[in-house]
Amino acid sequence: MSLLEVSGLGISFGGLRAVEDVSFSVSPGEIVSVIGPNGAGKTTLFNMISGIYRPGRGSVRLNGQDVTATAPHLLARMGLSRTFQNLQIFQEMTVLDNVLAGYHLTERGPVWADLLALPSMRRRAAEVRRGARDLLARVRLDKAAEQEAGSLSYGALKRLEIARALALGPKILLLDEPAAGCNAVETEEIDHLIAELAASGIAILLVEHDMKLVMRISSHIVVLDHGQKIAEGDPATVSRNPAVIAAYLGTDAPTEDPAHADG
Amino acid sequence: MTRRMKWIQLGVLAALIVLLPLLFPSGYYYRVGALIFVNALSVVGLVILIGYAGQISLGHAGFAGIGAYACALAPEHLGLHPGLAVLLGAGISGVMALLIGRPILRLKGYYLAVATLGFGILVSMVLTNERALTGGPDGMVVADPGLRDLLRDLGLRLSGGELWYGVSGLVLLVGAWIALNLLDSPTGRAMRALHGSEVAAATVGIDVAAQKLRAFVISAVYASVAGSLLALQNQYVTPDVAGFLHSVEMVTMAVLGGVGSVLGATLGAAILTLLPQVLTVFAEYEQLVLGAVMIGVMIFLPQGLLPSIARRLRGTSE
Ligand SMILES: Nc1ncnc2c1ncn2[C@@H]1O[C@H](COP(=O)(O)OP(=O)(O)O)[C@@H](O)[C@H]1O
Ligand SMILES: [Mg+2]
C-alpha cells in the first residue's frame, strides 16, 4: 500500500491557480520525483503536503489516514519530514544543535525535567547526541559540529537540512531541490545518500532540477507545468513524452542552470 | 562542553555575589546590590522569552506588580506567610501569562507585544485605582517576613541590607541555574529553533505556539518573583513597580547586556541600576537615557554588551 497518497490537490493565490488537481502516490522505498519548469508549483505542492499551506481542494493521506491541512508539527509525529528550497536553518545555533533540534520528538520530556536538569534526561541526551553526530558524519559535517550554522557554505547548509530532517526518523522525506547550488561532487554524494535512504525503506518525494540525477535515481516521475500534472511514469517514458519536451523547451531546458533557485 | 560553560557562568556569578561586598564603601551598597540582583532576576526571565524564544513583552512589569502586591496583600487579607505569598504571586502570574498567551501566541507576528502592553497598563491601573485595597498611588506597607529575626535566633546577625543582598543573590543564582539548564535542553533548543525559523521548527515536530507559551509563562514567573523580592526588601510597594517605565527598563537591561546571555542580563541590570545611583542626573532623565541606550545598543552592539565583548576577545585570541 502506498504511504503517501495525494489526490486532486489544488490551491489558488488570488486569481492564480498555482496547483490544480494533482494526484500521485509514494510507497516505502520508492523515489518519486516532481519536475517542471520554475513556477510550475512544485514547492507549493510540497507546502500543501507538509501542512504549511492549507489546500484549497483535494486531499492528502498518510498511511491511509486523511491528513489534509494537518499542522506540520503533527505530521512530523506521523513520520513526515522535509527540507526547504530556500534554506530554513537555525542560523544562530551550532550545526550540532540544528540536528539535535531535529530529535525534538525523541528527546522531549516534561518541562520541569529540563528546567531542573534532572539526571533522567541526561542518558537520553547522550544517546541523542551520538545519533546526531552519526547523522552529521553521514552528510560529512561532523567536523563542523560546534560551528555556528550561519557560517557554513550553501552546499553544506543543504546537507545540514537533510541531516536535520533525518533526525526525526522519517517514514517519508520531502526534499526540495537538495542539490541546488552544489558542485558535481556534492551532487553525487547527495545522489548516493538519497538512494541509500530509499533502500533503507524511506519513501522519498524529490524536487530537483538536475535532470541527470532525477533520471538516474527516480522510480517514478510526476511532471508539473503551470500547476497541472502533464505527465507521469518511469524516467524513460517521461523523457520521451512530447508534452514534457514541449513544456521544457517552452521555458528552460531541463538540464540547464540547476542553481537558478526561486523563492 | 556546554555543561562546562554552564558551571563556569554560574561560578563567575557566584564569585561576583560573594566578593563584591569587599568593595562596598558603605553598608548602603548592600541595598544597591540587592536591587541589581532583583532586576537581574527579571531580566534573566526576559532572556528566556526574548533571547531564547524571540518573543517581545512590553508589559512584564505587570507580573512584577502581581508578585509585589501578592506579598503586600496576601499576608494581611489571607493571613498567608509572606514566603508563601511569593509562591501565590508566582502562581497567579503564571496563570495570567497562560490566559493571555494561549490565544495570542497562536497568531503570527508581534501581537504579544501589543497584548502585554495592554496587560501591563491594566495591572498598573487597577493597583492605582483600587485605593481601598492597595492604597492607590501612594502604595502600601509590606509586612516583615521575619527572616532576620529567624536568622538572629539561629545566631546569625545581619543588617537588613546584608540579608536581602544574600537572599536576592541566592535567588538570582537559582534563576540563572534554571535558565542555563533550559538553554541546553530539548525545550530550550525548541525555543531557540523557532526563533530561527518557525516553519523549520514546526516540520521537526516542535509545537511552536506551545513552546512560545512556555517561554512566556516561565518569564512571567521570573518577573513575579523579582517583584515579590522587591516588595519584601523595601517593605513597601507602589504601583510604579507595575508601570510601563519599569517594563521598558527590563527590556532595555536585557538588550543592553545581551539578550541571549544570562551573564549579560546581569551586566545589563547592573549598569542600568547603578547609573541613577551614581549620577543623579540620570535619575531625572531616566526615560531619555533608556531610549538613548536602546538606540545605541541596536546600532552599535546588536548582540548586546557581553556577547559583543566575548566575540571580540575570541576574535583576537584566535
Ligand atoms: N504564498 C504565495 N502567495 C502567492 N503566490 C505564490 C505563493 N507561493 C507560490 N506562489 C506562486 O505559485 C506559483 C508556483 O510557485 P512554486 O510552487 O514556488 O513553483 P516551483 O517550486 O515549481 O518553482 C508561482 O507563480 C508562485 O509565484
Ligand atoms: Mg520551488
From TrEMBL, chain A:
One of its GO terms (cellular component) is plasma membrane. Residues 4-251 form the ABC transporter domain. The keyword ATP-binding applies. This is Branched-chain amino acid transport system ATP-binding protein. Signal peptide: none annotated. It comes from Salipiger marinus. InterPro entries: AAA+_ATPase, ABC_AA/LPS_Transport, ABC_transporter-like_ATP-bd, BCA_ABC_TP_C, P-loop_NTPase. It comes from the Bacteria. Keywords: ATP-binding, Nucleotide-binding, Transport. GO terms for biological process: D-alanine transmembrane transport; L-alanine transport; L-isoleucine import across plasma membrane; L-valine import across plasma membrane. Gene3D superfamilies: P-loop containing nucleotide triphosphate hydrolases (3.40.50.300). GO terms for molecular function: ATP binding; ATP hydrolysis activity; L-isoleucine transmembrane transporter activity; L-phenylalanine transmembrane transporter activity; L-valine transmembrane transporter activity.
TrEMBL record, chain B:
InterPro entries: ABC_transp_permease, LivM-like. The chain crosses the membrane at residues 7-24, 30-51, 58-75, 81-100, 109-127, 163-183, 215-233, 253-276, 288-310. One of its GO terms (cellular component) is plasma membrane. Keywords: Cell membrane, Membrane, Transmembrane, Transmembrane helix. Coiled coil: none annotated. The keyword GTP-binding does not apply. GO terms for molecular function: branched-chain amino acid transmembrane transporter activity. This is Branched-chain amino acid transport system permease protein. It comes from the Bacteria. It holds the Pfam family BPD_transp_2. It is found in: Cell membrane. It is a multi-pass membrane protein.
